[in-house]
Amino acid sequence: MIPRVHKMGKRTIGLLYYLYGPGTHEEHIDPHLVAAWDSLVPDPGRHPDATYEDLQRLLDQPVMALPESRRPAEHVWHLSVRAAPEDPILTDDQWGDIARRMVAATGIAPDGDDAGCRWTAVRHADDHIHIIATVVREDGRRARIRKDGKRSQEEARRIEIDYGLRRLNTGDGTAAKRPTSAERHKADREGRERPAREELRETVRRAVAGVTSEKEFFDRLAVAGLLIRKRVAPSGDLLGYKVALPDDRNDDQEPVFYAGSTLSPDLSLPRIRARWSGDTPLQSSDTSSDQTTDPAPSGPATARRRAATAAWQAVLVIDRGEDAQVAAHITAAGEILDALAKTSAAHTRTELREAAFAFERATRSHVKAERGHDRALRQAARDLVYSGPALGRGEDGATTAMLIDMAFFLVTAAAHWHAKKEHAQQAAAAREAAEHLRAAYRAAADIPLAVLYQRGRRLPQPLRRKQAAHLRQAVPELAEQVLAEPGWYVLAATLADTEAAGHDPTALLVEAAGRWELQTADSVSDVLVWRLRRMAGLPADASAVPQPNSSPTVPSAGRITEPSMSRSDPRRRAK
Fold first, then answer.
1. Burial of 46 (0-12, 13-18, 19+ CB in 10 A)
2. Out of 21, 143, 183, 526, which residue is the most buried by the measure of CB atoms under 10 Å away?
């Protein structure tokens, strides 16, 4: 259940006309009262003799009783309360009870206080009500409604329990502002996938990923097609910025601009500057350098391997580091997801975009980030952006699966950290991002793992028994589980590749299995495959590896020792 305190108003009659009217898009159906401060209040929606003016005069009576000099300029209080889409449809009596609980909790009409404010609750849709009140009490005093938004949220959590509704997570005030109903209706009317506010927030976040200077940041915004307004002090210093979509216009056909800070608390210019404040060397906003203009000296596949390495190091920090360092790494993890969504192939892009969109909430909390420690992750995000878009096949596609696998591990570690800190919304956002990454992994891993699966099936039986012996010797407690998985053939092919490349499969398996726990993996085979291929420096695209009986060509990328965590088993469809 979502309560929302709206901006205080001046005209009671204007809000009544809206609540009882047809709505912006004829969405108001059968508007009527479900509760009020007095059971005898006339209802213009159900009683033909009652008028909006009658109800307005009754609501405003305590205000008008005051001398004109004491009347507040803004006296109309407005709260909307909306049920979740999956909640059952509540009756009028139930909504009336919810309205009475809300006005009591917020201080409009406390329980047992006969001199509280006058209020009414109007229902014009199945899933929500609007509560309108005047903030002058019957005794002429102003209502004590400080922190009414927080108190309405706390009461909503209690109502969810009492009514068996979907239980939402308690926020901490660090979430980005939600689009207003008007913005959502406008998006629907114009056929937009998301309201302009959310589209701009996503675009700006992608522009921030790995950025190292103001010039680079604004250049990326311009390339993305946004309109930009900069706020400059008389001294010439840049104070802030606003952005707009070229086709998002108001009634006067002027672009609708949003300040970065209104898109999200961490997208204000000072907060963006803080991201690169710990980078070395620090680039000034007007300095052009190779670091800020040149692309990364690698292709998409190499950038993805490096990002997987940085992600693993970040997992260690999140698991064991100080809170301020962890907060910085979680924020930078969001940059990795933004960069990955921006540069990956079409068949993974939608899920990766949704993962980044969801994880955005997990990047903010009241724990202040200590910048500089996250430099490797931010550089990895930068490398992803400047290495260019990856193809969905070959080494690009396979290393995309490798990085998604590690990114899943990274956001899961973030979810665990937030849960320990009782950051409920952030933990839920990270878990949601993990599910999108799981889906993206399936799409990315299908082809490279299907190749390995077929190669494993074709291995001579003596060679496959030899790999099984390595497995039993290295991880006896997991061997039978792995041998029963469909992915065993994938692991067998990978063990054969490591042996052909000159490694000791048993020793490598011991090291790979000991890098991180395996009990929570859906497919232990997947976990070990990606760990072994990185540790042995094998191509992620197994079709590039010679058969074990031929002379091997070992890649020169070097040995990568960071582990991976996989949660899916794509070979079930590849068989």
1. exposed
2. 526
The domain ranges of the chain are 2-163, 190-288, 300-574
Count the alpha carbons within 13 Å of 568 in the hemisphere toward its beta carbon.
25
3-class DSSP assignment, residue 297: coil
| Helices 524-535 and 505-514, packing angle to 10 deg | 110
Query: Is the distance from CB of 175 to CB of 361 less than 8 angstroms?
Result: yes
What's the rounded Cα separation, in Å, for the pair 338 and 317? 21
Using CA atoms in the order 92, 93, 95, 100, what is the torsion angle rounded to 10 degrees?
140
The C-alpha atoms of residue 308 and residue 254 are separated, in whole angstroms, by 44
Report the DSSP pairing between strands 227-232 and 128-134. Answer: unpaired
Mean pLDDT of 109-113: 94
Evaluated on CA atoms 55, 61, 63, 67, the torsion sign reads positive
Contact between residue 446 and residue 573 where contact means Cβ atoms under 8 Å apart: yes
Q: Rounded to whole angstroms, how far apart are CA atoms 276 and 121?
A: 49
**Cβ-based neighbours of 568, under 8 Å, separated by 6 or more:** 438, 441, 442, 445, 522, 523, 526
Q: Which long-range contacts (CB under 8 A, 24 or more apart) does 353-358 make?
A: 353/202, 354/436, 355/407, 355/411, 355/433, 355/434, 355/436, 355/437, 355/440, 356/202, 356/205, 356/433, 357/198, 357/202, 358/429, 358/430, 358/432, 358/433, 358/436
Q: Residue 323 and residue 418: Cα distance in Å, rounded?
A: 10
pLDDT in tens, 118-138: 999 999 989 999 999 999 999
- DSSP string computed for 381-430: HHHHHHH-PPPSSHHHHHHHHHHHHHHHHHHHHHHHHHHHTT-HHHHHHH
- Rounded Cα gap, residues 18 and 21, in angstroms: 5
Q: Which residue has the higher pLDDT, 536 or 284?
A: 536
d(CA 159, CA 167): 9
DSSP code at position 362: G
Could you report the per-residue pLDDT of 320-357, keeping only the tens digit for each?
889 999 999 999 999 999 999 999 999 999 999 999 99
pLDDT band at 392 (very low <50, low <70, confident <90, very high): confident
CA distance linking residue 33 with residue 132, whole number of Å: 11
Residue bearing tokens 């001294």:
235
Pick the CATH number of 2-163 from 3.10.590, 3.30.930, 3.30.200, 2.70.50: 3.30.930
Cα separation, 570 vs 220, whole angstroms: 36
Whether residue 281 is preceded by a cis peptide bond, meaning omega within 30 degrees of 0, is: yes
